[in-house]
Design brief:
- This protein is mainly beta.
- The chain is 10% helix and 41% strand.
- The chain has one helix at residues 2-17; strands at residues 33-34, 36-42, 45-46, 51-56, 66-68, 74-76, 78-79, 83-84, 86-87, 89-96, 98-104, 116-122, 137-140, 146-152.
- Strands 2, 3, 6 and 14 form a four-stranded mixed sheet that branches. A four-stranded antiparallel sheet has the order 5-4-10-13, with no helix packed on it.
- Strand 7 and strand 8 form a beta hairpin.
- The N and C termini lie far apart (72 Å).
- 19% of the residues are buried.
Length: 153
């Protein structure tokens, strides 16, 4: 009888796991989101590991879709970190990426990795890093996926 009770409890637990809501709950006031995929290139090659953020050009929206480019330079934007897509609207696009460069230890302090520190070198021009200065703009249309390619300096 004890085994049957344990088995029944296990089966019911597994069954109830599938009854809850799927994924995180959208925050109150979040607008409808539309698929948004960007591709970043520099000198014709994909830009891997760049941080991309969309900044609304009108209003004071808290919804700033963002993402990180993959090895093909593709960024699948998400809003509020967990929700795929972007609200419809006009945006300035910021892109930031730095590359580590080995640097000899200038201060004589022993580094944990054998005496070589890594400094960072800006890989993508700083003009793309700040919303007021970036030349990159994007329009996300309601009801349709948005795809765009940006060639960076």
């Amino acid at each position: 009888m004890k085994r049957f009770t344990l088995l029944l409890a296990a089966v019911l637990s597994v069954a109830f796991l599938g009854c809850g809501p799927k994924g995180p709950k959208k925050p109150d006031g979040m607008p409808e989101l539309f698929p948004c995929v960007l591709t970043l290139t520099k000198g014709g090659a994909p830009v891997d590991g760049a941080i991309v953020t969309l900044h609304p050009t009108s209003g004071d929206s808290q919804w700033k879709p963002s993402g990180v480019s993959d090895a093909q330079g593709v960024v699948n934007l998400a809003t509020y970190g967990n929700f795929p897509g972007a609200p419809a609207g006009s945006y300035k696009v910021t892109v930031m990426k730095s590359e580590p460069i080995p640097e000899e230890n200038p201060m004589g302090i022993e580094a944990p990795n054998g005496g070589v520190y890594e400094a960072s070198d800006v890989y993508v021009d700083n003009k793309y890093a700040y919303a007021p200065n970036t030349p990159l703009e994007l329009e996300v249309a309601a009801g349709a996926p948005t795809e765009a390619t940006f060639e960076l300096d």
